[in-house]
Protein backbone atom coordinates (compact mmCIF):
# COMPACT_ATOMS: atom_id res chain seq x y z
CA UNK A 1 0.00 0.00 0.00
CA UNK A 2 1.29 3.43 -0.84
CA UNK A 3 1.95 6.11 1.71
CA UNK A 4 -0.96 8.25 2.89
CA UNK A 5 -0.26 11.91 2.08
CA UNK A 6 -1.45 14.49 4.61
CA UNK A 7 -1.68 18.13 3.54
CA UNK A 8 -3.31 21.51 4.10
CA UNK A 9 -4.55 24.04 1.56
CA UNK A 10 -2.80 25.84 -1.29
CA UNK A 11 -0.85 28.95 -0.31
CA UNK A 12 -0.20 27.27 3.00
CA UNK A 13 -0.26 29.29 6.19
CA UNK A 14 1.15 28.14 9.52
CA UNK A 15 -1.93 26.05 10.37
CA UNK A 16 -1.99 24.36 6.95
CA UNK A 17 1.61 23.26 7.40
CA UNK A 18 1.58 22.79 11.18
CA UNK A 19 -1.64 20.75 11.21
CA UNK A 20 -0.30 18.52 8.43
CA UNK A 21 2.92 17.86 10.36
CA UNK A 22 1.03 17.20 13.60
CA UNK A 23 -1.72 15.04 12.08
CA UNK A 24 0.75 12.95 10.06
CA UNK A 25 2.80 12.42 13.24
CA UNK A 26 -0.35 11.27 15.07
CA UNK A 27 -1.24 8.88 12.24
CA UNK A 28 2.27 7.42 12.40
CA UNK A 29 1.87 6.89 16.15
CA UNK A 30 -1.40 5.07 15.34
CA UNK A 31 0.45 2.76 12.95
CA UNK A 32 -0.41 4.39 9.62
CA UNK A 33 2.22 5.04 6.95
CA UNK A 34 1.58 8.77 6.65
CA UNK A 35 3.69 11.66 5.37
CA UNK A 36 3.07 15.37 5.81
CA UNK A 37 3.43 17.28 2.54
CA UNK A 38 2.42 20.79 1.49
CA UNK A 39 0.87 22.53 -1.51
CA UNK A 40 3.42 25.29 -1.37
CA UNK A 41 6.50 26.55 0.43
CA UNK A 42 6.25 28.03 3.94
CA UNK A 43 5.76 31.77 4.27
CA UNK A 44 8.17 33.72 6.49
CA UNK A 45 6.00 33.36 9.57
CA UNK A 46 5.77 29.59 9.14
CA UNK A 47 9.49 29.32 8.37
CA UNK A 48 10.21 31.21 11.62
CA UNK A 49 8.10 28.64 13.50
CA UNK A 50 9.73 25.68 11.75
CA UNK A 51 13.18 27.08 12.47
CA UNK A 52 12.35 27.77 16.12
CA UNK A 53 11.24 24.18 16.69
CA UNK A 54 13.88 22.64 14.40
CA UNK A 55 11.39 21.09 12.01
CA UNK A 56 11.89 20.59 8.29
CA UNK A 57 9.43 22.12 5.85
CA UNK A 58 7.23 19.43 4.27
CA UNK A 59 7.99 18.38 0.71
CA UNK A 60 5.91 20.36 -1.84
CA UNK A 61 3.54 18.46 -4.12
CA UNK A 62 1.26 19.66 -6.93
CA UNK A 63 -0.62 16.40 -7.50
CA UNK A 64 -1.23 13.35 -5.32
CA UNK A 65 -2.49 10.56 -7.58
CA UNK A 66 0.92 10.06 -9.15
CA UNK A 67 2.24 8.73 -5.85
CA UNK A 68 -0.69 7.56 -3.71
CA UNK A 69 -4.35 6.48 -3.70
CA UNK A 70 -5.13 7.84 -0.28
CA UNK A 71 -4.92 11.28 1.29
CA UNK A 72 -5.95 13.11 4.44
CA UNK A 73 -6.84 16.80 4.35
CA UNK A 74 -6.23 19.27 7.13
CA UNK A 75 -7.35 22.90 7.43
CA UNK A 76 -9.44 22.82 4.25
CA UNK A 77 -12.03 20.81 2.39
CA UNK A 78 -13.01 22.87 -0.65
CA UNK A 79 -11.63 21.14 -3.71
CA UNK A 80 -10.46 24.34 -5.39
CA UNK A 81 -8.19 24.97 -2.39
CA UNK A 82 -6.74 21.47 -2.48
CA UNK A 83 -4.43 19.36 -4.61
CA UNK A 84 -5.24 19.64 -8.32
CA UNK A 85 -6.21 15.97 -8.72
CA UNK A 86 -8.22 15.49 -5.54
CA UNK A 87 -10.97 13.68 -7.43
CA UNK A 88 -8.51 10.94 -8.44
CA UNK A 89 -7.64 9.90 -4.88
CA UNK A 90 -9.63 8.67 -1.89
CA UNK A 91 -9.98 11.12 0.99
CA UNK A 92 -9.68 8.97 4.14
CA UNK A 93 -9.98 11.80 6.63
CA UNK A 94 -10.52 15.53 6.99
CA UNK A 95 -9.74 17.63 10.05
CA UNK A 96 -10.85 21.21 9.55
CA UNK A 97 -12.41 24.30 11.07
CA UNK A 98 -13.90 25.93 7.95
CA UNK A 99 -17.31 25.87 6.30
CA UNK A 100 -17.94 22.83 4.11
CA UNK A 101 -18.36 23.45 0.38
CA UNK A 102 -17.35 21.95 -2.94
CA UNK A 103 -16.44 18.76 -1.17
CA UNK A 104 -17.79 15.40 -2.18
CA UNK A 105 -16.77 11.78 -1.67
CA UNK A 106 -17.98 8.45 -3.05
CA UNK A 107 -17.38 6.68 0.26
CA UNK A 108 -17.89 7.29 3.96
CA UNK A 109 -14.86 8.85 5.62
CA UNK A 110 -13.59 10.26 8.88
CA UNK A 111 -14.52 13.95 9.04
CA UNK A 112 -13.85 16.06 12.06
CA UNK A 113 -14.73 19.72 11.93
CA UNK A 114 -15.30 22.00 14.89
CA UNK A 115 -16.05 25.72 14.91
CA UNK A 116 -12.83 26.63 16.72
CA UNK A 117 -10.11 29.08 15.74
CA UNK A 118 -7.52 26.63 14.48
CA UNK A 119 -7.28 23.11 13.06
CA UNK A 120 -4.34 22.40 15.35
CA UNK A 121 -6.62 22.88 18.37
CA UNK A 122 -8.73 19.96 17.11
CA UNK A 123 -5.64 17.88 16.35
CA UNK A 124 -4.34 18.45 19.88
CA UNK A 125 -7.71 17.12 21.10
CA UNK A 126 -7.28 14.05 18.88
CA UNK A 127 -3.87 13.39 20.46
CA UNK A 128 -5.62 13.39 23.84
CA UNK A 129 -8.49 11.17 22.67
CA UNK A 130 -6.00 8.64 21.36
CA UNK A 131 -3.84 9.10 24.47
CA UNK A 132 -0.76 9.83 22.36
CA UNK A 133 1.91 12.05 23.89
CA UNK A 134 2.81 15.22 21.96
CA UNK A 135 6.54 15.68 21.27
CA UNK A 136 7.91 19.16 22.04
CA UNK A 137 8.56 20.22 18.40
CA UNK A 138 5.06 19.05 17.39
CA UNK A 139 3.61 21.01 20.31
CA UNK A 140 5.61 24.03 19.10
CA UNK A 141 4.29 23.94 15.56
CA UNK A 142 0.69 23.40 16.75
CA UNK A 143 1.09 26.34 19.13
CA UNK A 144 2.42 28.44 16.24
CA UNK A 145 -0.61 27.51 14.15
CA UNK A 146 -3.01 28.62 16.90
CA UNK A 147 -1.17 31.92 17.38
CA UNK A 148 -1.22 32.47 13.63
CA UNK A 149 -4.89 31.65 13.05
CA UNK A 150 -6.14 33.61 16.07
CA UNK A 151 -3.67 36.51 15.77
CA UNK A 152 -2.60 35.80 19.35
CA UNK A 153 -6.24 35.29 20.47
CA UNK A 154 -7.43 38.62 19.03
CA UNK A 155 -9.51 37.15 16.21
CA UNK A 156 -13.26 36.65 16.78
CA UNK A 157 -12.72 33.08 15.58
CA UNK A 158 -10.71 32.37 18.73
CA UNK A 159 -12.48 30.21 21.33
CA UNK A 160 -11.69 29.28 24.93
CA UNK A 161 -10.59 25.88 23.59
CA UNK A 162 -7.95 27.53 21.40
CA UNK A 163 -6.58 29.52 24.32
CA UNK A 164 -6.49 26.49 26.63
CA UNK A 165 -4.79 24.37 23.95
CA UNK A 166 -2.22 27.10 23.26
CA UNK A 167 -1.34 27.40 26.94
CA UNK A 168 -0.88 23.64 27.29
CA UNK A 169 1.14 23.45 24.08
CA UNK A 170 3.39 26.38 25.10
CA UNK A 171 4.23 24.50 28.29
CA UNK A 172 5.10 21.32 26.35
CA UNK A 173 7.10 23.29 23.77
CA UNK A 174 8.87 25.24 26.50
CA UNK A 175 8.31 28.77 25.18
CA UNK A 176 6.74 31.94 26.58
CA UNK A 177 3.48 32.21 24.68
CA UNK A 178 3.23 36.02 24.47
CA UNK A 179 6.89 36.66 23.66
CA UNK A 180 7.18 33.87 21.11
CA UNK A 181 3.75 34.70 19.65
CA UNK A 182 4.53 38.33 18.86
CA UNK A 183 7.96 37.43 17.48
CA UNK A 184 6.41 34.88 15.17
CA UNK A 185 3.63 37.18 13.94
CA UNK A 186 6.12 39.97 13.26
CA UNK A 187 8.28 37.58 11.24
CA UNK A 188 5.30 37.29 8.87
CA UNK A 189 4.89 41.01 8.32
CA UNK A 190 8.11 41.61 6.47
CA UNK A 191 6.28 42.80 3.37
CA UNK A 192 8.77 45.32 2.00
CA UNK A 193 10.96 42.71 0.35
CA UNK A 194 8.07 41.10 -1.53
CA UNK A 195 6.71 41.85 -4.99
CA UNK A 196 3.05 42.81 -5.35
CA UNK A 197 2.29 39.37 -6.76
CA UNK A 198 3.99 37.72 -3.79
CA UNK A 199 1.87 39.77 -1.40
CA UNK A 200 -1.30 38.74 -3.21
CA UNK A 201 -0.49 35.04 -3.11
CA UNK A 202 0.86 34.95 0.43
CA UNK A 203 -2.46 33.83 1.89
CA UNK A 204 -5.09 33.84 -0.85
CA UNK A 205 -8.06 31.56 -1.41
CA UNK A 206 -10.72 31.24 -4.10
CA UNK A 207 -14.41 31.08 -3.30
CA UNK A 208 -17.11 30.40 -5.89
CA UNK A 209 -20.04 32.68 -5.01
CA UNK A 210 -23.18 32.40 -7.13
CA UNK A 211 -21.69 32.39 -10.65
CA UNK A 212 -18.66 34.47 -9.69
CA UNK A 213 -15.13 33.36 -8.93
CA UNK A 214 -14.05 35.43 -5.94
CA UNK A 215 -10.42 35.62 -4.82
CA UNK A 216 -9.67 36.85 -1.32
CA UNK A 217 -6.09 37.49 -0.25
CA UNK A 218 -4.98 38.59 3.18
CA UNK A 219 -1.72 40.11 4.42
CA UNK A 220 -0.76 40.84 8.01
CA UNK A 221 1.13 44.02 8.74
CA UNK A 222 2.14 46.30 11.56
CA UNK A 223 1.83 49.31 9.21
CA UNK A 224 -1.17 49.60 6.86
CA UNK A 225 0.35 52.68 5.23
CA UNK A 226 3.32 50.64 4.05
CA UNK A 227 0.91 48.34 2.16
CA UNK A 228 -1.18 51.08 0.57
CA UNK A 229 1.82 53.11 -0.53
CA UNK A 230 1.97 50.35 -3.14
CA UNK A 231 -1.72 50.49 -4.09
CA UNK A 232 -1.20 51.13 -7.81
CA UNK A 233 1.29 48.31 -8.07
CA UNK A 234 -1.03 45.97 -6.13
CA UNK A 235 -4.05 46.83 -8.31
CA UNK A 236 -2.08 46.15 -11.47
CA UNK A 237 -1.00 42.77 -10.12
CA UNK A 238 -4.59 41.97 -9.09
CA UNK A 239 -5.84 42.85 -12.57
CA UNK A 240 -3.15 40.65 -14.11
CA UNK A 241 -4.03 37.71 -11.82
CA UNK A 242 -7.73 38.09 -12.71
CA UNK A 243 -6.90 37.91 -16.40
CA UNK A 244 -4.74 34.84 -16.03
CA UNK A 245 -6.79 32.91 -13.46
CA UNK A 246 -10.29 34.00 -14.45
CA UNK A 247 -11.27 35.65 -11.18
CA UNK A 248 -14.26 38.00 -11.37
CA UNK A 249 -13.57 39.84 -8.16
CA UNK A 250 -10.35 40.21 -6.14
CA UNK A 251 -10.33 41.40 -2.54
CA UNK A 252 -7.11 42.11 -0.70
CA UNK A 253 -7.54 42.36 3.06
CA UNK A 254 -4.61 44.09 4.76
CA UNK A 255 -4.81 43.43 8.49
CA UNK A 256 -3.09 45.45 11.18
CA UNK A 257 -2.16 42.77 13.71
CA UNK A 258 -1.42 45.28 16.47
CA UNK A 259 -4.66 47.33 16.22
CA UNK A 260 -6.89 44.50 14.91
CA UNK A 261 -8.36 46.46 11.99
CA UNK A 262 -8.27 45.83 8.26
CA UNK A 263 -8.24 47.88 5.10
CA UNK A 264 -9.85 46.40 2.01
CA UNK A 265 -8.70 46.81 -1.58
CA UNK A 266 -11.14 45.67 -4.27
CA UNK A 267 -10.61 45.08 -7.99
CA UNK A 268 -13.13 43.59 -10.43
CA UNK A 269 -16.90 43.29 -10.28
CA UNK A 270 -19.52 43.25 -8.87
CA UNK A 271 -18.60 45.63 -6.05
CA UNK A 272 -22.19 46.20 -4.87
CA UNK A 273 -22.26 42.94 -2.82
CA UNK A 274 -18.93 43.93 -1.25
CA UNK A 275 -20.23 47.33 -0.17
CA UNK A 276 -23.46 45.77 1.11
CA UNK A 277 -21.61 43.00 2.96
CA UNK A 278 -19.56 45.42 5.03
CA UNK A 279 -21.85 48.46 5.04
CA UNK A 280 -19.21 50.62 3.38
CA UNK A 281 -18.78 52.70 0.26
CA UNK A 282 -15.56 52.01 -1.59
CA UNK A 283 -13.44 55.09 -2.16
CA UNK A 284 -10.47 54.79 -4.46
CA UNK A 285 -11.28 51.01 -4.43
CA UNK A 286 -10.68 50.94 -0.68
CA UNK A 287 -12.62 50.72 2.57
CA UNK A 288 -11.56 50.64 6.20
CA UNK A 289 -13.04 47.74 8.19
CA UNK A 290 -12.68 48.46 11.90
CA UNK A 291 -12.33 45.35 14.07
CA UNK A 292 -12.20 43.00 11.08
CA UNK A 293 -9.32 40.51 11.21
CA UNK A 294 -10.90 37.19 10.21
CA UNK A 295 -11.52 36.29 6.58
CA UNK A 296 -13.44 33.20 7.65
CA UNK A 297 -15.77 34.83 10.11
CA UNK A 298 -15.92 38.48 9.10
CA UNK A 299 -15.48 38.41 5.32
CA UNK A 300 -16.58 35.16 3.65
CA UNK A 301 -20.01 34.61 5.31
CA UNK A 302 -21.02 38.26 4.83
CA UNK A 303 -20.02 38.19 1.17
CA UNK A 304 -21.59 34.77 0.62
CA UNK A 305 -24.87 36.05 1.98
CA UNK A 306 -24.83 39.05 -0.36
CA UNK A 307 -24.16 36.83 -3.34
CA UNK A 308 -27.30 34.96 -2.35
CA UNK A 309 -26.12 31.35 -2.10
CA UNK B 1 -33.61 31.90 20.74
CA UNK B 2 -35.73 29.29 19.04
CA UNK B 3 -35.41 25.59 19.71
CA UNK B 4 -32.72 23.66 17.82
CA UNK B 5 -34.34 20.92 15.73
CA UNK B 6 -32.45 17.63 15.42
CA UNK B 7 -33.43 15.19 12.68
CA UNK B 8 -32.37 12.34 10.42
CA UNK B 9 -33.08 11.80 6.72
CA UNK B 10 -36.35 11.50 4.82
CA UNK B 11 -37.99 8.07 4.88
CA UNK B 12 -36.48 7.62 8.31
CA UNK B 13 -35.09 4.26 9.35
CA UNK B 14 -34.32 3.24 12.91
CA UNK B 15 -30.95 5.05 12.93
CA UNK B 16 -32.42 8.27 11.52
CA UNK B 17 -35.01 8.35 14.31
CA UNK B 18 -32.90 6.75 17.05
CA UNK B 19 -29.86 8.95 16.44
CA UNK B 20 -32.07 12.07 16.47
CA UNK B 21 -33.61 11.07 19.81
CA UNK B 22 -30.21 10.22 21.31
CA UNK B 23 -28.37 13.29 19.99
CA UNK B 24 -31.15 15.68 21.04
CA UNK B 25 -31.09 14.11 24.52
CA UNK B 26 -27.31 14.63 24.66
CA UNK B 27 -27.66 18.26 23.57
CA UNK B 28 -30.25 18.81 26.31
CA UNK B 29 -27.84 17.34 28.86
CA UNK B 30 -25.25 19.82 27.55
CA UNK B 31 -27.65 22.71 28.16
CA UNK B 32 -28.99 23.24 24.63
CA UNK B 33 -32.69 23.67 23.91
CA UNK B 34 -32.94 20.82 21.39
CA UNK B 35 -35.86 18.74 20.14
CA UNK B 36 -35.74 15.51 18.14
CA UNK B 37 -38.07 15.59 15.16
CA UNK B 38 -38.39 13.37 12.08
CA UNK B 39 -38.97 13.79 8.35
CA UNK B 40 -41.51 10.95 8.34
CA UNK B 41 -43.33 8.45 10.52
CA UNK B 42 -41.50 5.41 11.94
CA UNK B 43 -41.53 2.18 9.94
CA UNK B 44 -42.69 -1.01 11.66
CA UNK B 45 -39.19 -1.97 12.77
CA UNK B 46 -38.62 1.45 14.33
CA UNK B 47 -42.07 1.45 15.92
CA UNK B 48 -41.27 -1.95 17.47
CA UNK B 49 -38.09 -0.45 18.96
CA UNK B 50 -39.88 2.69 20.22
CA UNK B 51 -42.61 0.55 21.80
CA UNK B 52 -40.09 -1.80 23.44
CA UNK B 53 -38.25 1.07 25.11
CA UNK B 54 -41.42 3.11 25.78
CA UNK B 55 -40.34 6.09 23.68
CA UNK B 56 -42.64 8.38 21.74
CA UNK B 57 -42.14 8.80 18.00
CA UNK B 58 -40.69 12.24 17.20
CA UNK B 59 -43.03 14.86 15.78
CA UNK B 60 -42.97 14.90 11.95
CA UNK B 61 -41.91 18.08 10.17
CA UNK B 62 -41.68 18.96 6.47
CA UNK B 63 -39.88 22.28 6.81
CA UNK B 64 -37.70 23.77 9.53
CA UNK B 65 -37.36 27.50 8.83
CA UNK B 66 -40.96 28.19 9.86
CA UNK B 67 -40.09 27.32 13.45
CA UNK B 68 -36.32 27.66 13.93
CA UNK B 69 -33.11 29.17 12.55
CA UNK B 70 -30.86 26.35 13.72
CA UNK B 71 -30.78 22.63 13.07
CA UNK B 72 -28.57 19.62 13.66
CA UNK B 73 -28.50 16.74 11.19
CA UNK B 74 -27.95 13.11 12.07
CA UNK B 75 -27.46 10.12 9.76
CA UNK B 76 -27.38 12.20 6.59
CA UNK B 77 -25.88 15.30 5.05
CA UNK B 78 -27.02 15.33 1.40
CA UNK B 79 -29.50 18.17 1.01
CA UNK B 80 -31.91 16.19 -1.16
CA UNK B 81 -32.32 13.69 1.69
CA UNK B 82 -32.98 16.43 4.24
CA UNK B 83 -35.66 18.91 5.16
CA UNK B 84 -37.01 20.77 2.12
CA UNK B 85 -35.80 24.21 3.25
CA UNK B 86 -32.36 23.27 4.57
CA UNK B 87 -30.77 26.25 2.79
CA UNK B 88 -32.89 28.63 4.87
CA UNK B 89 -31.56 27.48 8.26
CA UNK B 90 -28.12 27.26 9.84
CA UNK B 91 -26.70 23.76 10.29
CA UNK B 92 -24.93 23.85 13.66
CA UNK B 93 -23.84 20.23 13.68
CA UNK B 94 -23.83 17.02 11.67
CA UNK B 95 -23.21 13.52 13.01
CA UNK B 96 -23.15 10.98 10.21
CA UNK B 97 -21.55 7.87 8.76
CA UNK B 98 -22.25 8.40 5.05
CA UNK B 99 -20.28 9.87 2.19
CA UNK B 100 -20.39 13.67 2.00
CA UNK B 101 -22.12 15.18 -1.04
CA UNK B 102 -24.46 18.03 -1.93
CA UNK B 103 -23.75 19.60 1.40
CA UNK B 104 -22.59 23.17 1.79
CA UNK B 105 -22.58 25.74 4.57
CA UNK B 106 -21.74 29.44 4.78
CA UNK B 107 -20.19 29.08 8.23
CA UNK B 108 -17.91 26.72 10.11
CA UNK B 109 -19.83 24.02 11.99
CA UNK B 110 -19.39 20.92 14.09
CA UNK B 111 -19.15 17.93 11.75
CA UNK B 112 -18.45 14.46 13.02
CA UNK B 113 -18.41 11.61 10.54
CA UNK B 114 -16.74 8.25 11.00
CA UNK B 115 -16.75 5.27 8.65
CA UNK B 116 -18.63 3.01 11.09
CA UNK B 117 -21.83 1.04 10.59
CA UNK B 118 -24.23 3.32 12.41
CA UNK B 119 -24.59 6.96 13.44
CA UNK B 120 -25.70 5.86 16.89
CA UNK B 121 -22.30 4.24 17.45
CA UNK B 122 -20.71 7.70 17.03
CA UNK B 123 -23.34 9.32 19.25
CA UNK B 124 -22.64 6.77 21.98
CA UNK B 125 -18.98 7.80 21.71
CA UNK B 126 -20.00 11.46 22.08
CA UNK B 127 -21.88 10.61 25.28
CA UNK B 128 -18.64 9.11 26.60
CA UNK B 129 -16.50 12.05 25.46
CA UNK B 130 -18.83 14.45 27.26
CA UNK B 131 -19.07 12.06 30.22
CA UNK B 132 -22.87 12.06 30.06
CA UNK B 133 -24.66 8.95 31.34
CA UNK B 134 -26.95 7.17 28.86
CA UNK B 135 -30.50 6.54 30.13
CA UNK B 136 -31.82 3.00 29.54
CA UNK B 137 -34.46 3.94 26.91
CA UNK B 138 -31.90 6.02 24.99
CA UNK B 139 -29.48 3.08 25.13
CA UNK B 140 -32.27 0.86 23.81
CA UNK B 141 -33.03 3.04 20.79
CA UNK B 142 -29.31 3.45 19.96
CA UNK B 143 -28.88 -0.32 20.22
CA UNK B 144 -31.86 -0.78 17.89
CA UNK B 145 -30.29 1.60 15.38
CA UNK B 146 -27.03 -0.35 15.37
CA UNK B 147 -28.85 -3.69 14.92
CA UNK B 148 -30.90 -2.17 12.10
CA UNK B 149 -28.02 -0.56 10.21
CA UNK B 150 -25.69 -3.57 10.53
CA UNK B 151 -28.40 -6.24 10.12
CA UNK B 152 -27.28 -7.71 13.43
CA UNK B 153 -23.56 -7.27 12.52
CA UNK B 154 -23.89 -9.10 9.16
CA UNK B 155 -23.41 -6.03 6.98
CA UNK B 156 -19.93 -5.29 5.62
CA UNK B 157 -20.41 -1.78 7.00
CA UNK B 158 -20.27 -3.19 10.53
CA UNK B 159 -17.07 -2.46 12.46
CA UNK B 160 -15.68 -3.69 15.76
CA UNK B 161 -16.71 -0.34 17.23
CA UNK B 162 -20.35 -0.99 16.32
CA UNK B 163 -20.27 -4.42 17.95
CA UNK B 164 -18.63 -3.13 21.11
CA UNK B 165 -21.11 -0.23 21.35
CA UNK B 166 -24.07 -2.57 20.81
CA UNK B 167 -22.92 -4.89 23.57
CA UNK B 168 -22.47 -2.03 26.02
CA UNK B 169 -25.83 -0.51 25.07
CA UNK B 170 -27.66 -3.88 25.40
CA UNK B 171 -26.34 -4.12 28.96
CA UNK B 172 -27.56 -0.60 29.79
CA UNK B 173 -30.92 -1.21 28.10
CA UNK B 174 -31.28 -4.58 29.84
CA UNK B 175 -32.09 -6.73 26.79
CA UNK B 176 -30.57 -9.85 25.23
CA UNK B 177 -28.91 -8.53 22.11
CA UNK B 178 -29.46 -11.56 19.83
CA UNK B 179 -33.03 -12.29 20.89
CA UNK B 180 -34.16 -8.66 20.80
CA UNK B 181 -32.24 -8.03 17.59
CA UNK B 182 -33.89 -10.76 15.56
CA UNK B 183 -37.33 -9.86 16.93
CA UNK B 184 -36.83 -6.26 15.90
CA UNK B 185 -35.55 -7.06 12.40
CA UNK B 186 -38.44 -9.46 11.80
CA UNK B 187 -40.90 -6.75 12.85
CA UNK B 188 -39.63 -4.77 9.88
CA UNK B 189 -40.21 -7.53 7.32
CA UNK B 190 -43.99 -7.57 7.47
CA UNK B 191 -44.29 -6.63 3.82
CA UNK B 192 -47.53 -8.43 2.89
CA UNK B 193 -49.75 -5.74 4.37
CA UNK B 194 -48.07 -2.93 2.44
CA UNK B 195 -48.92 -1.47 -0.97
CA UNK B 196 -46.23 -1.49 -3.64
CA UNK B 197 -45.77 2.26 -3.18
CA UNK B 198 -45.32 1.78 0.56
CA UNK B 199 -42.63 -0.84 -0.06
CA UNK B 200 -40.79 1.52 -2.39
CA UNK B 201 -40.79 4.41 0.05
CA UNK B 202 -40.01 2.38 3.19
CA UNK B 203 -36.29 3.11 2.94
CA UNK B 204 -35.56 4.98 -0.27
CA UNK B 205 -33.02 7.68 -1.01
CA UNK B 206 -32.19 9.81 -4.04
CA UNK B 207 -28.67 10.15 -5.39
CA UNK B 208 -27.67 12.53 -8.18
CA UNK B 209 -25.17 10.62 -10.35
CA UNK B 210 -23.65 12.52 -13.27
CA UNK B 211 -26.75 14.16 -14.82
CA UNK B 212 -29.11 11.40 -13.67
CA UNK B 213 -31.44 11.34 -10.70
CA UNK B 214 -31.10 7.84 -9.24
CA UNK B 215 -33.55 6.50 -6.67
CA UNK B 216 -32.52 3.50 -4.58
CA UNK B 217 -35.03 1.79 -2.33
CA UNK B 218 -34.31 -1.12 -0.02
CA UNK B 219 -36.63 -3.59 1.71
CA UNK B 220 -35.65 -6.25 4.21
CA UNK B 221 -37.37 -9.60 4.03
CA UNK B 222 -37.10 -13.18 5.21
CA UNK B 223 -38.59 -14.37 1.90
CA UNK B 224 -37.38 -12.86 -1.40
CA UNK B 225 -40.03 -14.82 -3.32
CA UNK B 226 -42.77 -13.00 -1.43
CA UNK B 227 -41.40 -9.70 -2.74
CA UNK B 228 -40.96 -10.78 -6.37
CA UNK B 229 -44.40 -12.39 -6.57
CA UNK B 230 -45.43 -8.73 -6.75
CA UNK B 231 -42.89 -7.74 -9.41
CA UNK B 232 -45.41 -6.38 -11.96
CA UNK B 233 -47.13 -4.32 -9.30
CA UNK B 234 -43.78 -3.01 -8.02
CA UNK B 235 -42.58 -2.06 -11.51
CA UNK B 236 -45.78 -0.16 -12.21
CA UNK B 237 -45.39 1.75 -8.94
CA UNK B 238 -41.73 2.49 -9.74
CA UNK B 239 -42.69 3.81 -13.18
CA UNK B 240 -45.36 5.99 -11.61
CA UNK B 241 -42.93 7.37 -9.02
CA UNK B 242 -40.40 8.15 -11.76
CA UNK B 243 -43.01 10.13 -13.67
CA UNK B 244 -44.09 12.13 -10.65
CA UNK B 245 -40.68 12.70 -9.01
CA UNK B 246 -38.50 12.91 -12.11
CA UNK B 247 -36.21 9.97 -11.33
CA UNK B 248 -34.25 8.63 -14.29
CA UNK B 249 -33.42 5.29 -12.77
CA UNK B 250 -35.09 3.39 -9.93
CA UNK B 251 -33.38 0.48 -8.15
CA UNK B 252 -35.21 -1.63 -5.59
CA UNK B 253 -32.89 -3.75 -3.46
CA UNK B 254 -34.72 -6.59 -1.71
CA UNK B 255 -32.47 -7.97 1.02
CA UNK B 256 -32.81 -11.37 2.66
CA UNK B 257 -31.79 -10.64 6.24
CA UNK B 258 -31.33 -14.31 7.13
CA UNK B 259 -29.14 -15.34 4.17
CA UNK B 260 -27.53 -11.90 3.61
CA UNK B 261 -28.17 -11.75 -0.14
CA UNK B 262 -30.11 -9.27 -2.24
CA UNK B 263 -32.16 -9.31 -5.41
CA UNK B 264 -32.20 -6.17 -7.53
CA UNK B 265 -35.14 -4.81 -9.51
CA UNK B 266 -34.35 -2.03 -11.99
CA UNK B 267 -36.66 0.33 -13.86
CA UNK B 268 -35.63 3.28 -16.05
CA UNK B 269 -32.36 4.08 -17.77
CA UNK B 270 -29.46 3.81 -18.20
CA UNK B 271 -29.10 0.19 -17.10
CA UNK B 272 -25.59 -0.31 -18.52
CA UNK B 273 -23.89 1.34 -15.50
CA UNK B 274 -25.99 -0.87 -13.20
CA UNK B 275 -24.91 -4.05 -14.98
CA UNK B 276 -21.29 -2.89 -15.01
CA UNK B 277 -21.37 -1.87 -11.34
CA UNK B 278 -22.37 -5.33 -10.17
CA UNK B 279 -20.98 -7.48 -12.98
CA UNK B 280 -24.42 -8.84 -13.82
CA UNK B 281 -26.80 -8.99 -16.76
CA UNK B 282 -30.32 -7.97 -15.92
CA UNK B 283 -32.92 -10.60 -16.79
CA UNK B 284 -36.55 -9.63 -16.59
CA UNK B 285 -35.21 -6.36 -15.00
CA UNK B 286 -33.72 -8.40 -12.15
CA UNK B 287 -30.34 -9.60 -10.91
CA UNK B 288 -29.28 -11.63 -7.88
CA UNK B 289 -26.51 -10.01 -5.83
CA UNK B 290 -24.98 -12.64 -3.55
CA UNK B 291 -23.59 -11.27 -0.29
CA UNK B 292 -24.88 -7.76 -0.94
CA UNK B 293 -26.77 -6.22 1.98
CA UNK B 294 -25.45 -2.67 2.23
CA UNK B 295 -26.70 0.10 -0.04
CA UNK B 296 -24.04 2.43 1.29
CA UNK B 297 -21.06 0.15 0.84
CA UNK B 298 -22.08 -2.32 -1.85
CA UNK B 299 -24.43 -0.34 -4.09
CA UNK B 300 -23.86 3.44 -4.07
CA UNK B 301 -20.05 3.60 -4.50
CA UNK B 302 -20.08 0.98 -7.28
CA UNK B 303 -22.84 2.80 -9.14
CA UNK B 304 -21.25 6.19 -8.54
CA UNK B 305 -18.01 4.96 -10.06
CA UNK B 306 -19.80 3.70 -13.18
CA UNK B 307 -21.57 7.00 -13.63
CA UNK B 308 -18.12 8.55 -13.64
CA UNK B 309 -18.34 11.24 -10.99
UniProtKB/TrEMBL annotation, chains A, B:
Principal location: cytoplasm
Domain DHHA2 positions: 181-307
Cofactor: Mn(2+)
Cellular-component GO terms for this entry: cytoplasm
Top-rank taxon, per record: Bacteria
Record localization: Cytoplasm
Binding-site positions, Mn(2+) 2: 15, 75, 97, 149
The entry's keywords: Cytoplasm, Hydrolase, Manganese, Metal-binding
Entry GO MF terms: inorganic diphosphate phosphatase activity; manganese ion binding
Cofactor annotation comment: Binds 2 manganese ions per subunit.
Alphabetized SMART domains for the sequence: DHHA2
Record field: catalytic activity: diphosphate + H2O = 2 phosphate + H(+)
EC number(s) per entry: 3.6.1.1
InterPro entries: DDH_dom, DHH_sf, DHHA2, DHHA2_dom_sf, Mn-dep_inorganic_PyrPase, Oligoribo/pAp-PDE_c-di-AMP_PDE
Positions of Mn(2+) 1 binding: 9, 13, 75
Protein family: Belongs to the PPase class C family.
Name this protein carries in UniProt: Probable manganese-dependent inorganic pyrophosphatase
Lineage: Bacteria, Bacillati, Bacillota, Bacilli, Lactobacillales
Amino acid sequence: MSKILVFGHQNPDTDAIGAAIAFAALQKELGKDAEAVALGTPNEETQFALDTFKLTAPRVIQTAANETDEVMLVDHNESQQSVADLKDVTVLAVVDHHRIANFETANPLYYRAEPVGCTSTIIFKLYKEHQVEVAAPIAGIMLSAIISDTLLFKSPTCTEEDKAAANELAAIAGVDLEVYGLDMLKAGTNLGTKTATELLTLDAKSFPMADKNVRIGQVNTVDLKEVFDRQAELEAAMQAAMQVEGYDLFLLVATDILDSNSELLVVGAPVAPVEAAFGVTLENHRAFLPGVVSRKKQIVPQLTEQFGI
